[in-house]
Amino acid sequence: MSKKKKVEPTILTFKTAYDLMQERQEIKRYPTGTPIDELIGGGIEEGEVVEFYGEYGSGKTQIAKTLAVMVAGIHNQHVFFVDCEETFKPERIVQIAKNRGLDIDQTLKNIHVLIPVTSTDLMAVLDNIPPEKQPKLLIIDGLTTPFRVEYIGRETLTERQGYLRKFLYDLKKWAKKTRTAVIVTNQVYADPSATPFLALEYRELAVGGHTLYHAIDSRIFVRKGQGGTRIAKLVDSSCYPPAERPFRITDKGIEPPQEPKKDKKEDVASATEQHDTPTENRMN
User: Fold this and answer.
1) Do residues 116 and 125 lie in contact, with contact meaning Cβ atoms separated by under 8 Å?
2) Which of 74, 97, 176, 196 could form a disulfide with 107, with the two C-beta atoms 3.0–4.6 Å apart?
C-alpha cells in the first residue's frame, strides 16, 4: 500500500493597509500634460493597465504616442510600442518631439516598435522584451485586433475569450512585477440592445466584453467633441470616480483645450463698469 504524499501547508502573509499605503508613496506616474491626468490621480501609474477605447479618429492612439514621446524624450526611458493595427509612423514621433523641444534621436532610439502578425505573436511579447531594455511604458495599440481577425464567428468566441483572458492576466501580473505603466487602446462596437437615451459610452462598448473589463485598472472612453476638441471620460476605475475632461490634438501630440477668447465688447463693458463704479464701492 503506497504512502500518502505529505502536503506542505500553505503559508500566507497579510499586509496592513498602512504598509500598502507606504509602498504606494514610491509609485511613479507619467503625466500627459492635459486634463486627462486629473481623471487618474496625476498620470499613468507604473504597474497599472489603463485602457483608452473609442471610435476611429477619436484620439486614443494620439494619447499613446504623446506619452511614448514624453517617457522616451523627457525621462530618457525605454518604451515598447506594440502596433497591432500597423498605423505607427515615426514621422509623427519626430513631429511631437520637435515641437516639444526634445532630442529627436534620443526619443526615436528609446521607442521600440513591434508589429505582431498573429495573436500568438502578441501573446509572446512579454517573453521577448530584452531584460537590458526593461521599459517604463508598454503600449499595445489595438489590443483585440489580432484576436478579432483570427477568431471569426460565434463558434470561436469561447476559445478567443480564453486566450484573451490568459494574455490579460499575464499582462497585469507582469506590469505589477516590473512596475511598468501599460496603455492599451481598443476599438468599439455598437450595442444593438442599447436605447438611444443612454450615454454614448454605454451604447458603444469596448471589444472584448467582460473578459477585458475585469482585467483593466482604469477604463477611459474617448470621443470627439465640438470645435475640434476630444473628450476623455473615466468610465471605470478601482480608485477614482467617473468624470470627464477635454483635450485637443495638435502638432505637439495632445494638449489642454484652448481657453475661449474674450469678446472685445465684454472687455469694453467690463472696463466701463469699473470706471462708473464709485471709488468707495470699489474699495469696499
Assistant:
1) yes
2) 97
